[in-house]
Specification:
Layout (H helix, E strand, L loop, with lengths): L1 H4 L8 H7 L35 H12 L4 E5 L8 E7 L2 E7 L5 E5 L13 E4 L3 E2 L6 E2 L5 E3 L18 E7 L2 E5 L7 H5 L2 H4 L8 E11 L3 H7 L6 H4 L10 E3 L5 E7 L27 E7 L3 E5 L4 E10 L2 E11 H4 L4 H30 L14 H15 L2
Antiparallel strand pairs: 1-10, 2-3, 2-5, 3-4, 4-9, 6-7, 7-8, 9-10, 11-17, 12-13, 13-14, 14-15, 15-16, 16-17
């Protein structure tokens, strides 16, 4: 990289010269001074340095500080309504199982056999009478207790009571399930702060996940998460679909941020389309007349409109690879309507169109961030929520 620096040193400020250095050239990548401009007031702040989206050391620090110590979104409890139903998914904390037991309780475990570590259940949703390791047939109850281990009775010191599955904490808010491996983390509702009261009228407990989609995208997870927190791009990236939108910031307490787009009609369908699906009956505030685009730190967005919602998780795979997981939700009463199957196609069309357009622009930004000339720029006038998320990230990785 140094061989390029002379081409544009005269074009940049002192602080920008520091950002031209690669992460490997820096004495301390996590010196707070490198991020002072990101933490500045919104009007004068600069975006994160490019290495925050490309460097392996920064990525590892994020995983340790921003992810391992926080709650992780799984899905809705109605997806595992019956005993033996489960969701298996890879998280930053490792592969995880969330399963409903015969006693009706929902539990979570590491998706790894206590014998030699094989994955127990394939990712996705399913049903099992017991959890059976595909390698040596160690068998576990829904409670996590080891039920049987072939031939292990021949080992005199083996006691199956000692070898149950490793449990994770699992908690719910409004039927939505979250897990963590951090035993010291505050309860989920405390973690979410005023998110719970702000969305009480959306009646999350009545929501049903009716469809899921997964995408593998060649860019850093923050590229996609930040894109989901601003409408500055909508008139360009979504010019032929959603069109230009107009947002206002939302004041929040807790580990989340949000913007709000006012609209008398649902943003869950494309402009010009109409739907006969009802609004959520428990919404009664004028501020509910629109759509909230939230980010529940570290990496899950709940987009809540008047008649539906969609939940997006930006799962980090590597510094430049992300898996986007989307769950589309409607109230149970809406799902039961005779018109639902036909009307819901308008919603899926809008959601998939918007998501795929966002997914396409992500790698374009990632390619530019690899450039030696990429230095932090000013935030756009409607990127206030991106700034909030960037500040949260910096504070996590630098202990500020």
């Amino acid at each position: 990289m140094p061989k390029y620096r002379h081409l544009y040193e005269h074009m940049v400020t002192y602080s920008e010269k520091a950002n031209l250095m690669s992460a490997s050239e820096m004495d301390d990548l996590f010196d707070p001074a490198h991020y002072a401009e990101t933490l500045a007031d919104f009007g004068s702040a600069r975006t994160l340095p490019a290495w925050c989206y490309t460097d392996a050391s920064f990525f590892q620090r994020e995983m340790e500080r921003c992810f391992h110590s926080n709650w992780h979104f799984i899905g809705h409890e109605s997806e595992i309504a019956e005993p033996g139903q489960y969701i298996a998914v890879d998280l930053v904390i490792g592969p995880v199982i969330v399963i409903r037991g015969k006693d009706g309780e929902i539990r979570s475990f590491a998706n790894t056999c206590r014998h030699r570590g094989a994955r127990l259940l394939e990712n996705g949703q399913g049903h099992c009478a017991t959890i059976v390791c595909p390698y040596h047939a160690w068998t576990y109850e829904h409670s996590g207790n080891l039920r049987g281990a072939p031939a292990m009775e021949e080992m005199p010191e083996f006691c199956k009571e000692d070898w149950g599955l490793i449990p994770f904490r699992v908690e719910q808010y409004g039927g939505f399930m979250w897990v963590t491996s951090n035993g010291e983390l505050p309860a989920l509702t405390d973690y979410l702060g005023d998110f719970t009261s702000r969305f009480e009228g959306h009646d999350f407990g009545a929501m049903r996940v009716v469809r899921r989609e997964t995408y593998d995208i060649a860019c850093n997870w923050k590229v996609l998460a930040e894109n989901a927190l601003e409408e500055y791009h909508t008139g360009v990236v979504h010019s032929n679909s959603l069109g230009q939108q107009h947002s206002v910031p939302v004041e929040t307490l807790g580990r989340w941020c949000a913007l709000f787009i006012a609209s008398e009609t649902s943003l869950s369908i494309l402009p010009g389309e109409t739907s006969v699906l009802p609004h959520i009956a428990t919404l009664n505030s004028p501020t509910d007349d629109g759509t909230y685009f939230t980010m529940l730190y570290p990496n899950t967005q709940f987009a809540c409109s008047q008649d539906s919602m969609w939940c997006v998780t930006f799962h980090p795979v590597s510094p430049e690879q992300t898996q986007v997981r989307v769950a589309f939700c409607f109230p149970s009463g809406t799902v039961a309507l005779d018109s639902f199957e036909a009307e819901s196609q308008k919603y899926f069309h809008r959601w998939i169109t918007g998501i795929e357009e966002d997914n396409a622009i992500g790698p374009v930004q990632q390619q530019g961030l690899r450039s030696p000339a990429s230095v932090p720029g000013p935030y756009g006038p409607k990127e206030f929520t991106v700034h909030e998320m960037n500040k949260w990230t910096v504070r996590c990785v630098t202990d500020q």
